[in-house]
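Input.
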Amino acid sequence: MFIRIAQVCIYIVFCTLLRAGPWRYFQLNARYFNHNKGIFSKLDIDQLIPPQWRLPQWVDHSGIVPETFPVFLKPEWGQNSKGIQRADSLPEFEQLRLLKPSSKVQYLVQQGAKQSIEFEIFIIPAANSHSLASISITQVSNLSDEEHPINGIYNSATQYHDISSQFSAAQKQRLYEVLRTVGEFNISRFAIRANSVENLLDADFSIIEINLFFPMPLILLCNNVSFLAKWHFIIRNMWLLARITKAMANDQPYKDIFFKKMGFFYQVKDFKQKEMN
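Output.
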């Protein structure tokens, strides 16, 4: 929570210096916001992903059952893996449906990725250009013996390790160019599964999810990054984000994102606690 507050405060300071309204942050990715649903719909964003990187995903209906497992039952909108459960068999899947919390949030079923390593890639492009301004690449691991863990800040077994230094400037730019084909996002974090760093660079991967609302740069949770380096990252990236905010066209369509998102935030609940058979 402190890290998020620090980012917001520094962003506001830089926006003030640049005479850019910090409230315009919520318009950075507004073109991808589903106004009718009031969310950044995972289903909508999933359709932006090219077929070779896209995992099978569909709206959960009682008449549709997965043919292979594992699958993940997840809210159409949610952050930091909140509200997600995994089913490793048809009986588990059917029971999860019974335990699913009742709310206005629509649930999706996503096929599990076959690749073995999870990467989180945080990106900010340069203002007024298609070049890369900032990228951090984090490898995610899990201390449990689960083959398909649900990683996130709510899972104490999740660990993050910054591997950005393993990539040259040219490799980072190439990775950015590959991911930019999904969408021209002003800030984003891609959750990706690949079998190796080499496969990641060769675009041989599956995209699990794309976070566009307030994506936490997971480098800030890495134990192999010093406190000073984290602060330097926050300051530099909030300056870059303030510059993008300043550069946004004033006449672009406005979407009421903040209050709609807050309304859905409190509707995303965890599954009922009940032992699985």
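The two ends are 36 Å apart (CA to CA).
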